[in-house]
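Dear colleagues,

As part of the handover before I leave the project, I'm documenting each prediction I ran so the next person doesn't have to rerun anything. This entry is a single chain, and its sequence is reproduced below.
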Amino acid sequence: MKKDVVPVEIRGILPANSGAAIFIGNEEKVFVIQVEHSMGAIIGMFLRKTPKERPLTHDLITNIFTGLGVDVERVVITELKNSTYYARLILQQQNELGRKIVEIDARPSDCLAIASSTSRPIYVAAPLFEQVEDMSEVLERINQNGIEGE
């Protein structure tokens, strides 16, 4: 797996015209995934560990996983097709019958929210990471102008 994927983290979340820009990357490169405004706010809440009065949908999902003995192992942003990013949620269940790994197709925004809420690692497929435009300088300029990333 190590050569097939690149470890990344959420480097910043900024409001954008059509929603929110999620800056994802590492020391080598940062790229942007556009998400709905509400998803940007939810991911930000999870990253800041903001207390909530009632569970949000992603809290519910992780509570269901916990109840079923399923762990979120990692999320992987896999590809970009027709300006749409794709991702996989990798789940693990361990019980008396053994270990089972399940990969589920999911929106990157949902994967990022679940990874943020469960403090699980985020990866990008290596070919995709090579393909995306590096936005490191843009994020650096934004941070220097006083708009903080997450």
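The longest strand covers residues 5-16. The chain has a mean pLDDT of 92.

All the best with the project,
I.
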